[in-house]
Write a structure and sequence with these properties.
This protein is of the alpha/beta class. Helices cover 38% and strands 23% of the residues. The structure holds S-adenosylmethionine.
């Protein structure tokens, strides 16, 4: 059932893309960087400058802000969004968190990273985005989330976010997804929290996370439904 729903969801998401690229995605894989460069380069409809898979910042701020509040020992709190794409998550945290946050968004697509850096500088208005707290920072860097060595040292982030990135990487095979998880846990502080947002059912995702995060505690919370789809927040946490 979960696999069926996931397939339909992916099909629906790719339907618009297929129309845009006139069938050029046949046989393409969501773990392929060139495909993502094409998807991120699509013209945006309307005036919203971000594009979110699943849902945006507003839908999960009620989950994220209390976590930031809890982890205030580190100030500013370091947050990493792996596979940030052109989502509103990093920008929402930077502009709306009342707690100081140092947010880094990484994506292997240079197109996505250029788009986000342009937004940070204010896009066409040229007015740089304002932080929700004067000590907050936001950066976007091109990096492979399966090899974060060049951009992140071990135990250096208190909050890791993955919205749809495991889902995309797993399309290329589970070993890649486990490598992504292992890198996330390497850079996460032992008291920190990794959240994977996904529509994948717990009966599929939980055994994978439990296998790949031994020594960490894995829990799941149901989110939504948003636009008729139920999502999940998978939390991988160290000792609190
Ligand atoms: C399903 S999209 C989600 C994007 C964004 N997190 C959101 O919620 O809208 C998956 C993202 O992961 C990125 N991605 C896939 N594999 C990656 C990798 N190995 N390293 C870094 N980014 C990757 C893609 O470029 C894409 O932006």
């Amino acid at each position: 059932m979960a696999a069926l729903r996931r397939t339909f969801h992916m099909r629906r998401l790719l339907a618009g893309t297929r129309r845009t690229f006139a069938g050029s995605l046949a046989g393409s894989c969501l773990s392929d960087r060139c495909l993502w460069d094409q998807l991120h380069a699509r013209p945006r409809l309307g005036s919203v400058p971000t594009f979110d898979w699943f849902f945006g910042y507003e839908e999960v701020q009620g989950l994220l802000l209390p976590l930031l509040q809890e982890a205030r020992a580190a100030s500013p709190l370091r947050v990493l969004d792996v596979g940030c794409g052109t989502s509103s998550l990093c920008i929402g945290l930077y502009t709306k968190s009342p707690h100081p946050v140092d947010v880094l968004g990484v994506d292997f697509s240079p197109v996505a990273v250029a788009h986000m850096n342009n937004l940070l500088e204010g896009g066409q208005s040229q007015t740089r985005l304002s932080p929700g707290h004067p000590a907050s920072h936001l950066h976007f860097i091109q990096a492979d989330a399966q090899n974060l060595g060049p951009v992140a040292s071990s135990d250096s982030f208190q909050l890791l976010l993955d919205k749809g990135t495991w889902d995309a990487v797993a399309r290329g095979g589970l070993p890649g997804a486990y490598q992504l998880l292992s890198e996330c846990l390497r850079v996460l502080s032992p008291q920190g929290t990794l959240i994977q947002f996904s529509d994948e059912d717990p009966d599929v995702r939980l055994p994978c996370l439990e296998q790949g995060s031994q020594g960490w505690t894995v829990t799941v919370q149901e989110l939504g439904p948003f636009r008729g789809i139920t999502y999940f927040a998978y939390l991988v946490q160290g000792s609190h």
